Amino acid sequence: MIFKKQAEEDFNIQAAEFPEMESLINRCANIYRGVPEWLDDKNNIKTINFAKSVCSETARLATLAIGIQISKPKGDPEHYKWEHVTTAEYAGHPINVYEDIESRAEWLQEQIDKVYFQIRHWVEYSCAYGTVFIKPNGESLDVFTPADVMIVDYDNQEIKGIVFKDSYTVGRKYYTRLEYHRFVETTIDGVTFFPYYVSNRTYVSKSPNSIGDAIPIKETKWDDLVEEAGPFFKENMKKITSPLYGVLRTPQANNVDISTPLGLPIFAEAIEELKDLDIAYSRNAGEIFDSQKIVLADDRLLMPSGTPVAAMSPQGMENRRNEMNLPHFVKNVFGQDEKEFYQEINPQLNTDTRISGINAILSQLGYKIGFSNGYFVFNESSGIQTATGVEAEQQRTVQFIKDVRDKLESCLNEVIYALNVYADLYGLAPVGAYEVNYDFGDILYVRENDRARWWQYVTTNKVPAWLYFVKFEGMTKDEAVAMVKEAQPDEPTLFGEE
Fold first, then answer.
1. φ and ψ of 286, to 5 deg
2. Are 483 and 441 contacting, i.e. CB atoms less than 8 angstroms apart?
3. Measured CA distances, 225 to 147, 198, 235, 342 (Å)
4. 3-state secondary structure string across the chain
5. Mean pLDDT by 10-residue block, N- to C-terminus, for the chain (498 residues)?
């Protein structure tokens, strides 16, 4: 980390060292980005970047139909609705508080709604890097990977001191901000407490590989911040009980460095299997590419009719060969005797055997990550797929995703707490309590199976037909009722029309 030394000097701190974890995270980051160390153009070893795919699939399942509802607890008194804009101080800069906010819970809900569609990305990054950090920035929420933070103080997996690196570029100038969060032990009149402090330092450089020189924060886009902020307390001098950021870790135990507060990338224990998968897939693709028939023919068959081959000099023959525009599957061989030489070679594909090998690797790979055997399958026609039907044998997958969701809930609780503290500090919303409820989609749900089941309900007269079209075709009740009525012709009476 190019900012590590600068942070240590400017804040008079010392970074916690995790050399094994840093090495592993960097290795996994390269694999996730599609540049693993086993790429080999000479031997035609490419990557299908399955690490990215499995991280994305984990994030998709973990955030499937996620619902986050922040509300006032039962019994919490009503607060007056803010119907006008007032001015408050935010990090040393005057701002306008939100208007038309009925409660603290409503304001918190608005902040989470802003980043709702980013949550899946957070989970994917945490799967790839093992840990990500989510921090309020005054307008929204920022996400940081381990490469952009420096841990200073931690205890029993809880991070108490950390430096965040933020940056932007204007032309050929590279601006960097280091933001140091920590609790500071303080004793007054024999009473010990831990107020929260935030410090900012800004720099400018002409190279992305250097942090550059220190500059005043007012000369950057972060001019609404101050260099030193704190001590921070909640309303009525209540202590801040948690850092003002969230930490999203993967659920598996860290067997590389048990002392570190960082999590493991979900595929950290399956790197060799990822390598084997890329090699097996490359070999199969190469065999398919090379499976076209090859035609071997000598000069006499390839020369135009009437060419005096026997009388031509070696150089003249070579010139003739160079002039021939042959299909790529036709190879010219030199005639060695009086007989004209011609041979077709039709390579036999071993794709069935190779696909079986690929599926064996996929099964082992998915299992080591946390998925059930058979969840990932390679299909010859459509490539790698996930299991279409997730039944009882997929309970390992279900448990793995539940563990990821538990970690996500914990992180979101920390983020919402941080937002709530900022609301207290800078008067961003009415005072009030809140509670958070989470709801997740059922990963066992298969829409087509549900559709077929409901259609059977219709055909057996268990539910009206219009309800099916509302549920699965996106119609309103009136549209569905009208369509069903139009599709049912009036039955003639015994004596015809009356």
1. -65, -40
2. no
3. 23, 10, 21, 80
4. CCCHHHHHHHHCCCCCCCHHHHHHHHHHHHHHCCCCCCCECCCCECCCCHHHHHHHHHHHHHCCCCEEEEECCCCCCCCCCCCCCCEEEECCEEEECCCCCCCHHHHHHHHHHHCHHHHHHHHHHHHHHCEEEEEECCCCEEEECHHHEEEEEEECCEEEEEEEEEEEEECCEEEEEEEEEEECCEEECCEEECCEEEEEEEEEECCCCCCCEEECHHHCCCCCCCCEEEEECCHHHCCCCCCCCEEEECCCCCCCCCCCCCCCCCCHHHHHHHHHHHHHHHHHHHHHHCCCCEEEEEHHHHCCCCCCCCCCCHHHHHHHHHHCCCCCCEEEECCCCCCCCEEEECCCCCHHHHHHHHHHHHHHHHHHHCCCCCCEEEECCCEEEECCCCCHHHHHHHHHHHHHHHHHHHHHHHHHHHHHHHHHHHCCCCCCCCEEEEECCCCCCCHHHHHHHHHHHHHCCCCCHHHHHHHHHCCCHHHHHHHHHHHCCCCCCCCCCC
5. 89 93 96 95 91 96 90 68 43 49 89 93 97 92 95 86 95 95 85 87 93 94 88 72 94 92 95 94 74 65 62 64 62 60 65 81 92 80 51 78 96 95 88 91 74 84 84 84 81 53
Q: What is the token pair recorded at 217?
A: 């924060």
Domain ranges of the chain: 4-263+397-439, 294-345, 447-487
Question: For tokens 């509802």, what's the residue?
Answer: 69
